[in-house]
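Translate sequence into structure tokens.
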Amino acid sequence: MDKLIITGGTQLSGELRIAGAKNAALPILAAALLSEEPVTIGNIPHLHDITTTMQLLGQMGVRLTIDEKMNIEVDCCEINKFEAPYELVKTMRASILVLGPLLARYGQACVSLPGGCAIGTRPVDIHLDALLKMGAEIKVEGGYIHAKASRLKGCKLVLEKVTVTGTENLLMAAVLAEGTTIIENAAKEPEVSDLAHFLNAMGAKITGIDTGVLVIEGVEKLGKKDLYYKILPDRIETGTYLVAAAITRGKIKVKDVRPATLDAVLDKLTEAGAEITIGEDWIELDMHGRRPKAVNIRTAPYPAFPTDMQAQFTAMNAVADGVGVITETVFENRFMHVQEMQRMGANIQLESNTAICTGQKKLTGAPVMATDLRASASLVLAGLVAEGDTLVDRIYHIDRGYDHIEEKLAQMGATIRRIPR
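Result follows.
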């Protein structure tokens, strides 16, 4: 496996352009299954998860054409297979997003349970319970979801908990359903809204976008000739590089962003002592050489502080001035990066779903192992401020969500390089 080696101690400075949002690109690529016309999707990030999704669509018979700017034309006219096999789904939970569109347009779907997920303990139940209410026939056997429906029926769906993939799957299922579907307690993340805007661009009738109640009036078909849709910028990549500058006491300007999607993150960076300047599509952060101050954080669904930024702020608190308390409310097992940071000298105490960080003036480079996507990014950030070399192993996690992270950090002055397997 590839590794990253980072020599810490450099104050980052420079400008970066932010890639398209992975968490919008994945459901939008799945939603293209609903279109009776070829559709071109722009601002696609160059990531492993995108490649996996393209493999998944390709093995169904979807024709995919990519140009030099990473615009992808998706043509579903010759689709002949309605299965998402375990070999692909096991590497990426978002693969379950093909369930809704396959069932809505083709009346059938056979989708592997994602990542060894046990029905009854994961939010995939919410997807299935709602589809049953819409008239689908569903069997779960042999690790696969087998679903059929002549045509789904619109109804009122009250989600028992806020779920991004659940909202997206049901939104895609509802656009071709007979009648009106109301989704209450819907996720409000910008990526969900981007999916809804894309569906509307194809001819769907969705209202309540950006609220917790989505109303979908079903239509007979979707598709618009010569449709081009540009995906929104990645707010988590944006936040990660802002924290990279803050943790190294540096200065950065990120371009091609949507500042309004990062209010909670920017508030905490300001609290940490950063000077933040915002333009229409750019954000500038300047620490003026100062050590960041520790901040308290509680993760929650959007528009509150995102769980996908928790690990990065844990890294910042590890070297900040003071004590910061971070409470994770979205996922029950999302502090696996803490043990690796402790190997680097971080003073972090875990109490259930809370991490208490007493900032140290310095960390020490060490071999560490990435355990998930955002945890791996946080270890890279810790390595930027550690004395000596930090070797981050299992960085295939990083490649799932960050487009050339080592090149972008090096562009800002970091001493970082990839060691091929």
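Note: The longest strand covers residues 3-7.
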